[in-house]
Amino acid sequence: MIFDGAERPVTSHDVARAAGVSQSAVSRAFTAGASISPVMRDKVRSAAALLGYQPNLLPRMMLHGRSGFIALVVGGAYNPFHAATLEAFSRALQEAGKKILLLQVDDDRALDAVVNDLAGYRVDGVVSALSILGEEAAAAISAHRIPVVLLNSGLSSEWIRVVETDNHGAGRAAARLMARGGGTRFAYVGAPSVASAARKAGFQHELAKIGMAPPLCLEGNLDHDGGYAAARAMLAAPMRPDAIFCVNDLTAIGVADAWRIEGGLDVPRDAQLVGFDNIAASAWPAYRLTTFDQNVDRMAAEAVRLLVSPAPATERSCVGFTLIERHSTAR
Amino acid sequence: MIFDGAERPVTSHDVARAAGVSQSAVSRAFTAGASISPVMRDKVRSAAALLGYQPNLLPRMMLHGRSGFIALVVGGAYNPFHAATLEAFSRALQEAGKKILLLQVDDDRALDAVVNDLAGYRVDGVVSALSILGEEAAAAISAHRIPVVLLNSGLSSEWIRVVETDNHGAGRAAARLMARGGGTRFAYVGAPSVASAARKAGFQHELAKIGMAPPLCLEGNLDHDGGYAAARAMLAAPMRPDAIFCVNDLTAIGVADAWRIEGGLDVPRDAQLVGFDNIAASAWPAYRLTTFDQNVDRMAAEAVRLLVSPAPATERSCVGFTLIERHSTAR
DNA sequence: TTGTATGCGTTATCAC
DNA sequence: GTGATAACGCATACAA
C-alpha cells in the first residue's frame, strides 16, 4: 500500500513480504491439502486479507495444462426451452467445478472465430445444442482433441458425444395417447431438424402399427407463427385433423391459438393437441397443454459425465422423457 | 509427433523447432502488426498448420494483467425478457472483443463463490441484472477495483455503473395513453423491485397530474401466475379497473388470460392493458399487447461503453424506451 | 514444516 | 528482420 500506486493487483509475493514468509508458503496457505502448519496458514491468510489478496487463477491453469473452462456454444434461435436448457447446463457445469465460457454464434464467420477461441483458451470441452455446429466445425474441434457434447444431434465422429431425448419413443407415445383418446385423423407439425425427424418417425411408426391412417405432415419453423400458419392450413383442409402432435410447445400453442381465434374451435373438444419441451407457457390456464418434458437436468448431468471422459470416444446417451398429461388431450 | 505420446498440446517451441527458427519468430508470426518478413511468416504458419498449433492465450493474459473476460452474472428467475437480454449483452460484449464468463447465482452461498471467481480470474468487468447483487457483494467487488454494470438497479457506489430504462417516463406514458383511450379506473400490477417502483411512481404521478383518481395497486411476482392472481382480485373488486398497467408482459398476459377465462371479459373492450419488455408472446394474435420495448441492444452498447472506463466512477445511463402500441389499448 | 529454485507458454525488450 | 533473454504469478520438486 506504500509503494504501488494502487494499480498493480496484489500478488503472492506481496503477501509473502508482508507476512515475512516465503512465496511458497503463501501458495500453500491457499492450496487445499497442502503441507502447512495451522499457525503459518493463519498468519499468511490474515496478511492476505489485509492486503485484499486473491490468488490469480490464470497461472494455475497454465501449470495444470487444463483451463477448467467449458465452452457453452449458443445460437440465435431463442426459444423458452433454450433458456431452460442454458440454465440447467450452466448449473450442472458450475457444480462440477467448471467455469463457463459463453460463446454466441450467429453466422459461419463467428463460428470460425469461436473454434479458434476454443483451442486458444484450452477449454476442457464444448457443449452445444447448435445445429449450425456441423461436420466441418466438428472436425476442426476434433483436430484439437477437445471433447464435444451435442444435444439431440445426429452428428457422430471422433471426440463427439451426443445426449439426446428418446424422440422416437415420444412420437410413439403421442400416437398411442391420442388414439386412446379417440383421435382418428392425425397430423404432425414439424421443422427441419434431426429431433423433429425422429419424433415424426416415431409418430408415424406407431400409427401404422395400430392400424391408423398415416398423419398429415406439415413443416414450419420452431416458433409460434409456424404453428399458427400450419393450423390455418389444417383448418382449410378437407379432412380436418383431430389429433395433432407438434415438434415443440411453441408451435403447439400457435396451433391452439389459431384453432380458437381463426376457427372458433376448442382444444381438446375439436382436436387433441400434444407439444414438446414443457415450457412455462404450456401450463398456462389458456393452454394446459399435454407435452413431453425432456428432463434437462438429467441431460445436463449426462453431458457433464460425458465431458470428463478424456479419451476420444463416440458415445451416445439417451435420456428418457416424462409425459405431462394436461387438458389438451382430455376427452 | 515422434516424441510426445499425442498428449501434450503443441507449443510455439515445437513449431520453432519444426520450422528451424526461433520461438520469438513463431510468436511474431501470430501477432498482428509484428515486424516479420512475409517469407518467414509463411514458413512459420505452414509449419504451425502441419502440427495443428494454436497459440495459447492464457500466458498472454498473464503478461497483460488483463484477462479480457467479462463476467455475466445471471440468476434463477427465468423470464423471456432475460433470455433476450442475455443474448443482446453477450453479442455486444463479444463484438467488443471480450470473452464472456457466465456465472449463475442461485443463493448467497453461490454469490460468495462468484465474487471470489471474479477476482481470481482477473475479470475486466461484471455485468448483471441481478437484484441479489446487493450492497455487500458490490462492496466486495469494489474492493477488487472491478467495474460493475448493473441493469435497472438503484444501487450506487464506487465502481458501480448503472444502465436503466426510463421507467418513470414509461409509467407516465402508460397513464397518458390509457387516459386518452377513455380509461377512468386505473390499476397497477407490480412486483418488489426498483424498476417496478419507478414505473408505478411515474404512473401515479401522471394520473394525479391529469386529475385522475389514484390507481389500485396490486403486488405479485414477475410471472404469469402473479398477473393471473392479481386479475382475479380485480374481477372481485367493487370498482373493476378498466385501464391496467403491468410491471411486465408476463403478468400482463396473466391478466389478459384471467380476464377472458375467469371473467368472460375482453381486452381492450372491458379494459385496456399495457405491459413491459415486448417479449415475443406479447405479439401473439391471442394477446396483441401494447408494451414498452427496453431497447436492449442500446442498453448493451451502453454497458460496454461504461465497462471500458478504467477509473472508479459512479455513472448512470438512461436508455429511452419505445412504445409499441397494439390492440390491447385500441379503443 | 518451511524455504529455494525451476518451469508453465507466451510477449516484450534488447542486442545484432 | 531476427534471435536470445527476461519477465508474468503461481505450483511444485527438492533441499534443509
Q: How many domains is the backbone of chain A divided into?
A: 3
Query: Biggest sheet of chain A, in brief?
Result: 6 strands, parallel
Name of the top-level CATH class of the largest domain in chain A = Alpha Beta
- What is the residue-averaged pLDDT of chain A? 92
Strand ordering within the main sheet of chain A: 2-1-3-4-5-11
Task: Show unreliable segments of chain A.
Answer: 1-6
Radius of gyration of chain A (CA) equals: 26 Å
The CATH superfamily of the largest domain in chain A turns out to be: Response regulator
**Alpha-carbon distance between the two ends of chain A:** 75 Å
The computed structural class of chain A is alpha/beta
Task: Classify the helix fraction of chain A into a percent range.
Answer: 40-55%
Biggest chain pair contact, residues each? A-B, 58 and 58 residues
Number of helices of chain A: 12
The CATH topology annotation of the largest domain in chain A reads as Rossmann fold
Strand portion of chain A, in percent? 15-25%
> How many β-strand runs of chain A?
12
